[in-house]
Amino acid sequence: MKNCFRIPRVLLPAQGFRKWAVIACDQFTSDRGYWERVAREVGDAPSAFHMILPEVYLGENDEERIEDIHNSMRFALEEGWMRKSPRGLVLVERTTKTGVRKGLLVCIDLEEYSYEEGSSALIRATEEVVPSRLPPRVAVRRGALVEFPHAMLFYRDKKDKLMRSLEGEDLEKLYDFDLMEHGGHITGYLIPEYLSIDVLRVLSGLASPCFAVADGNHSVAAAKAYWEEVKQKIPASEQRNHPARFTLVEMVNVFDEAIAFHPIHRLVKDVDKEAFCSFFAGKVPCARRGDTLYPKLSSAPECVSLTDEAIGAYLKHNEGSVDYVHGSDILQDPGEDCVAIAMPELDRDEIFTTLKKGKRFPRKTFSIGEAEEKRYYLEGREISYD
After folding, report:
1. According to the model, what pLDDT value does residue 1 have?
2. In angstroms, what CA-CA distances link 303 with 103, 130, 339, 346, 352?
């Protein structure tokens, strides 16, 4: 049984958990108001917000922002903003409107990960990774002392034997608080090292046929790309245990009843609405309601693939841009000079059957939960010897 995991020592805020924890950087990319509210609530308080680059700001003084991020990480470590927990996994319970989602915080070995289609790696991407989206993420990681990951990986456990193995254990509570901006409630428990070893033995046996990066595909791919850079600069003797070889993720059972799969809708912006709708209808069978198009395709992968091809073909010769939107509100009112395209929901059983065939889903095929239910940056981990 191959082991692709490592037991971490996570960094947690020394105080002020609510202001510390903020939503994943790839959320609310069309909603500056959300991030402005977060900035106001956080202020100058210790927070992971000072150590991430929200994608809504990409392209705006990126180099300066990344330098500030690195400086904030160094300051946070030197000023004691974070404390290091004992070595062990973390049992995470996230309460949202869909229920209580249980996850296991663990390090994965990036040597066992691949996002290439047809890969037989033990850890695989569920969707296409776009290389052009990696440089800003790699730039943040390059020179960073700490990582604050938001990736979520799936394992298959229909009988839920992993989580049931932890029932009755008296675990130390690490945190227990309400997240900002309607993120629900989160509680974390430390699984001591001796017990973590047994837990990972069970988890390792659940690779069927692999573990799937369900959320944060580009984040994990960037960590892999950075590790490949580091690996070229150090001797083989140092590669086995170098901290950059690993990245922190949350492992979640794909059959967890609190997981809700949602489509990721397309929003085509700054276009001639009538011209675009006419063009799209000629490529993809669909119905139109107001400024929203509803493709008549039930298979989520097929619908996403054909939709993205049609959007790409239109934008190749016309002005406009495309955004990927979580939540159904945009379907009611896409906005001025915008057209929304509704995507169907994904059947969760398709995930591992697709990966077993060596295939991936088109990029942005599904989302786990609503935007507010995404993983928050909370736990950190040192990735540098500096």
Report:
1. 52
2. 30, 19, 17, 11, 19
Residue 370: pLDDT over 60: yes
Say which residues have a Cβ less than 8 Å from residue 245's Cβ, sequence separation at least 6: 109, 110, 111, 227, 230, 231, 239
What is the rounded CA–CA span in Å between residue 372 and residue 78? Answer: 31
Rounded to whole angstroms, how far apart are CA atoms 140 and 143?
7
Residue 179 in contact with residue 18, Cβ under 8 Å?
yes
CB 56 within 8 A of CB 23: no
pLDDT digits (tens, 9 = 90+) for 206-233: 998 899 999 999 999 999 999 999 999 9
Which residues on adjacent β-strands are paired with residue 379? none
Identity of the amino acid at 284: V
Range with the lowest mean pLDDT among 70-74, 93-97, 257-261?
257-261
H or E element, residue 89:
strand 88-96
Residue 160 to residue 154: CA distance in whole angstroms: 13
Paired tokens of 120: 């037989």
Contact between 315 and 322 under an 8 Å Cβ cutoff? The reply is yes
Amino acid identity at 295:
P
Exposure of 336 by Cβ count < 10 A (0-12 exposed, 13-18 middle, 19+ buried)? exposed
Q: Are 38 and 22 in contact (CB under 8 A)?
A: yes
Residue 23: CA count within 13 A, CB half-sphere: 25
Kindly give the interhelix angle for 273-283 and 300-315, rounded to the nearest 10 degrees.
130
pLDDT tens digits, 6-47: 999 999 999 999 999 999 999 998 899 999 999 999 999 999
